[in-house]
Amino acid sequence: MAKNLRIIPLGGLGEIGKNMTVFEYGRNMIIVDSGVMFPESDMYGIDLVLPDFDYVVQNQDRLRGIILTHGHMDHIAALPYLLREVNVPVYGTRLTLGLVERQLKEKGLLEQADLRTILPKETLHLGPFRVTPFAVAHSIPDSVGFVIGTPVGKVVHTGDYKLDETPAGGRTTDLDTLRELTRDGVIAMLGDSTNADRPGRTPTEQVVAQTLDRLFAEAKGQRIIIATFSSLLARLQEIMRLAEQHGRKVALTGRSLVENVELARDLGYLDVPAGLIVDIDARVPRDKLVILSTGSQGEPQSALNRGHDHHLRRDDPRQRGGRRADAEQAVRARRECRLRCDGSGACLRARQPRRATRDDRGGPPEVHDPRARGGTPSAPARAACAGSRDAGRGRVHPEERRSLGNGWRACVDGRGA
What we know:
Elements: E1 5-11, E2 20-25, E3 28-32, H1 54-58, E4 63-67, H2 73-76, H3 79-82, E5 89-92, H4 94-106, E6 114-117, E7 124-126, E8 129-135, E9 144-150, E10 153-160, H5 175-181, E11 188-192, H6 205-218, E12 224-228, H7 233-245, E13 249-253, H8 255-267, E14 277-278, E15 289-294, H9 303-306, H10 322-337, E16 339-341, E17 347-349, E18 356-357, E19 366-367, H11 379-387, H12 398-404
Helix pairs in contact: 4-8, 6-7, 10-11
């Protein structure tokens, strides 16, 4: 086999998620990251999207190790699936490996995994590869990039990074070490920084902190609910600092959020004053509470969606964004509708019993029966029927079908809506 350096992206190139890159020289390979991608809205029944790592499995005798840049799910969450097929050392910083351990434990793979902690500027020798990590600024602590030395030259793999002189957490990208490690030049750089291809600069994280401070001050007399990623630890630290400053307690909802905060506290990456975090069911006045929840991307199974009726009041204006409020209004209108519209424009009752519903203001139940009212439906009902005109042809989203129950076929053609 000719000894040429091959760089093989198995995911993450030109897409968000599935970050996984193979470096191959002769009969030696290393992997940088192994993450997942969360499904798009049209990927029905799909929970996670994995990189295609068949090539790695078929050539696992050449694999010398897996190195991780940081602990976000799009960089580590495919490891449990890969390690079922291959058995090699996994290298990462303390926090990154702590997050990996939780994932492997859930899958029953922790006992067989070989996890090894690395430190910035500490060189690893993996076959012909010499790998030296350097610190980078990112939204999760303990993030690193790598300078990878090969027999044909050096390659820089930045991981996710940001050039911010005042980042959350205070850790900047270590350009001095990077400059020192690449004094002789590099043959390639693999960079990953959001919007790096656009002119200009991204504002410093301190701007976000100032905006949050202003929003906290404006929310006097109200509860504050913030949706976030569970691994956005630098932002979580800032929110907790502001909550203490403004005399509020913090409640966490979402298993991954609770677990990540606990892990980061144990490892010393989160500084949380005693008594600041309370149980989600604790009796705390609304104006003295901040709720941190997963679900910032509208994930159906996130705490923000699953706990919508239990912990998060529907009438809280700071809870819902405009799109979610619009979606809920549409669902309520469809539930009111339960009809099909004939060509003359008369709205007929759907083929299911009448249903009594209590409105959001806690008023008395109201029976929705358009025909009993002389065939004149409400404007939201007409709009809902018009929006569902493809229902009879089988093009209703499964989530909408579930919300409509047996009446989802009601709007057959919608011509009269």
